[in-house]
Amino acid sequence: MPLSEHASDANRKRFEIAVRLAELCPLALGSELALTGSTASGLADDESDLELNLWGESIPPAAARVAWLQAAGVSDIQIFEQPRPDDSYWIGGRLDDVALEVGWQTLDVSERSIETILSGSMSQVMAYILVNAIPFRSAGYLPEWQAKLSAYSDHVQAAAIHRAVQRWSQPDHVSRLARRDERLAVTEILLGDLGEMVSLLYAVNRRWQPSRKWTLAAAHDFTQAPERWRERMDDVLTAPPVQSVQLCVELILDALALVPEPYDVSAAARALQER
What is the overall mean pLDDT for the chain? Predict the structure, then answer.
C-alpha cells in the first residue's frame, strides 16, 4: 500500500524514515513488519511520532531489538520493560529529530485479538491500526488480518449501537446538575455523551474507530452524520450548562435518527427527550 499522493511533507518524512528502518531490520526480529499509526493513515504532522509494528512467533530479546535500532542511527533509546495491555512490547527513540515507537507482538496474540474485535467485545483501535497498516515485509499474516477486517460486520455494528442505546436509556441527573450550574459535573457527563455519539457515527458509517487522539481527524469524511455535527459539538462544550444539555440532546437525537433498521433506538430517544 503506497503512501497517499496527498500526504503532507511531515507525513512523507516519517514514511521515508520508516522505509530506511525496515530495510535494515533483520528477519529474525519479525516475519511481519508494517508502518502504522498516523503516518500510515496519512494524518501525521510535525508533532507526530513514527510507529512501526512487528509480529513474529515470539518476542525477540531486547538486546537484538536495540542493536537494530542503534545500527540504524536511532538515539535516546528507551526500552519499556512492561507490556501494554494488548501484550505488545515497545521501544522508543528518535531518528532525524523524529520521535518513534517500535512495538512487537506475537502472531497468536494478534490473531486472538482480531477474533475478539470481530465479536464486538473489544476496542476497535487495533482494527483501525491493522486496516491502515502499510506492510514493508510479510509472510502472509498481515494481508490475511486486513482481509478479515475489511468488512465491518452487522455484529460489530450491533454491539456499538447497543452500547450507545444502553448509555442513553439510563436515567441521569445532568439536567438537575445543569440547573445548579455544576459546570464540571455537567461537562464530564456531556463529554461521555459526545464520545458515545461519535462511536455511534463510526458504527453507522461502518468504520473502525481509532484511538481518542485521532477520533475526530479520521471522521472528516463521514457520509452519514448530523448536519454541522463538529460545530455543534463545540457549541455543546461552550454554552451555559442548561443550554449545553439541550444542545447535546438535539445532536444525539439527530445521530440516533441515522441508525438503520432493524436496530431499535426508541428507548434511548425517549430517555433523552425526558432529560
Answer: 94
Region of 24 on the Ramachandran plot (φ > 0 left; ψ -120 to 50 alpha; else beta): alpha
Low-confidence ranges of the chain (pLDDT < 50): none
> How many whole angstroms separate alpha carbon 171 and alpha carbon 173?
7
What distances in angstroms separate CA 66 from CA 24, 25, 70, 132, 221, one per listed residue?
13, 11, 6, 26, 39
144-177 CB burial, b ≥16 within 10 A, e <16: ebbebbeebeeebbebbbeebbebbeeebebbeb
Taken in order 54, 105, 52, 220, the sign of the CA dihedral is positive
Distance CA 232, CA 253 (A): 13
Return the C-alpha cell found at 30: 519479525
Cβ 80 vs Cβ 89: under 8 Å: yes
pTM, full prediction: 0.88
The CA distances from residue 129 to 38, 214, 249, in Å, are 9, 11, 32
* Helix (DSSP H) and strand (DSSP E) numbers for the chain: 12, 6
Cell of 154: 452487522
- Calpha distance 17→133 (Å, rounded): 16
**Given the C-alpha cell 459546570, which residue does it identify?**
183
Distance CA 23, CA 173 (A): 57
Query: How would CATH label the architecture of 9-148?
Result: 2-Layer Sandwich (3.30)
219 within 8 A of 201, measured Cβ to Cβ: yes
